[in-house]
Amino acid sequence: xxxxxxxxxxxxxxxxxxxxxxxxxxxxxxxxxxxxxxxxxxxxxxxxxxxxxxxxxxxxxxxxxxxxxxxxxxxxxxxxxxxxxxxxxxxxxxxxxxxxxxxxxxxxxxxx
Length: 112
Prior knowledge:
By secondary structure, the protein is mainly alpha-helical. 61% of the residues lie in helices and 4% in strands. It is built from 3 helices and 2 strands; from the N terminus they run E-E-H-H-H.
């Protein structure tokens, strides 16, 4: 999407990925009963980093314009952005559902 000669496509993709990862993590945390199942989306940034390392380590011939290092940097930034989105979704879930100030059942001052 180009507005006034400036391409905003990369910003839309980054913002959409952040929102999508946050929403997916929130719904996974909401529906999962097992706490370790909430970590299933951690494979997404890991696979992005592996893909960046594969491009960086590939035998590209090392020509004059070798952009494999730049691809690794962009993939790393994108993986960090996806990780931040997952953290935002997890944090929203944690704030809403898991920080209830419940009194223990054996508390002598409970109002039961």
